[in-house]
Structures are given as C-alpha cells and as structure tokens.
Predict the 3D structure of the following.
Amino acid sequence: MIIAIDGPAASGKGTLAKRIAQHWGLPCLDTGLLYRAVARDVTMRGFKLTDAWAALAQARSLDPSTLDDPLLRGPGTGEAASIVASMAHVRAALLAYQKAFAAQPGGAVLDGRDIGTVVCPHADAKIFVTARPEVRAERRFSERRAQSDPVTFEAVLADIQRRDARDAGRESAPMRPALDADLLETSDLDIEQAFEAAVGLIKRKIGR
Ligand code: CDP
C-alpha cells in the first residue's frame, strides 16, 4: 500500500506521515530531506544555491545515508531547499530514488509536495494537508523557539509565505493537490485529531 502525503511548509505533514507509517507498519520517507540535503551539499562545497550545475551534480551524487543529519532541519535550510527544488533537472535526478522507495514490497508512506502528482500518481491513498499560514507559522515558531532560536514570528511567517509561493509557482512539479487527493485542513485540529482524521480518510480510500 502506498500512501502519499503532500502539503505546504510546516503543515504538519511530516509528523502525520510518520504516525500513519507507524500505524500501518510501513517505511516512511520525508522527501523534503532530499532537497534539503542537496542544498546542504551545494553550499558545503562552496557553490551558490542558484548554480544549476552544482545542484545537479549534488543531486546525482546524493548519499541517502546522510539524511539523518540534524543540520537538515536547521534554520534557513527549508528556504535553501526550495531554491534547488525549483530546478527541473534536480527533481528528475531525485525521482528514481523516491520511486524505488515507494515500490518496496508492502509499500511505503512518502511526504512532500509532489508525491500524489508526480512521484506516486497511482498511490492507494493521497492526502493534501493544509492549515492557515498564520497557524503553520505559529507551529514552526514554537518549534524553533524551543530550540533557543531567537527568530521572530513575523520572520517565520514571511519565510513560509515566500516558500509556498515559490513551491506552488514553479514550472516543474509545482505543489498542488492531486485531483484524487483528500484535503485535510488542520488549522483547528491538534496532531491526535489530525491523525484520526487522516486514518479515516485512508481507510475509506483503501476500503478497510
Ligand atoms: O518541513 P517543511 O514543510 O518546512 O519543508 P520540507 O517538506 O522539508 O521541504 C523543504 C523544501 O523542499 C520545500 O519548500 C520544497 O521546495 C522542497 N520539496 C519539494 O519540492 N518536493 C518535495 N516532494 C518535498 C520538498
């Protein structure tokens, strides 16, 4: 069984995907980490994020064993990831790995922006997780404050809005719900309620 979870920045799709994967005993891939890792590798080697050749080279030589690097979740990496993620050839270079992950026996849960539309168009269940930008910014702001990051709420909100606009506006695999995706609006739900709602939607789709 393949489950696709998509949605904008800080929508809670990552947490949701992990809970869903645990529930059905499936492996889970946070595909945002792939783009974050490419951005990390490009800057680590002294190239600009806008250097299309450097980004392609790093995407082609990406080592998936480095995806648990805590740096990938650090401030600024989301924005950097979204810059390399707007390049069609970078996305193409990362596609085979994602498709192979989804194709493993028993299936998988993947979360990102284009899982339901491009990576797994034949997924058994697709959920597009949304929440109002202010609510998403509040969640990300609390996370970062808990890590002693002196960021302001306004800066987090601006980052989220800029990233959403870039992700939804790019030509290659723009962020959007697949036509057959279920929308899950979580602005007024806590994680437990969002999880219960997602399980309900998936069960209805897979008929068990
Ligand atoms: O956790 P958060 O929602 O902030 O971001 P993420 O899921 O880790 O994704 C970081 C960036 O990677 C996004 O802003 C997208 O530009 C890009 N991304 C993408 O283009 N396609 C995916 N399937 C996953 C992430």
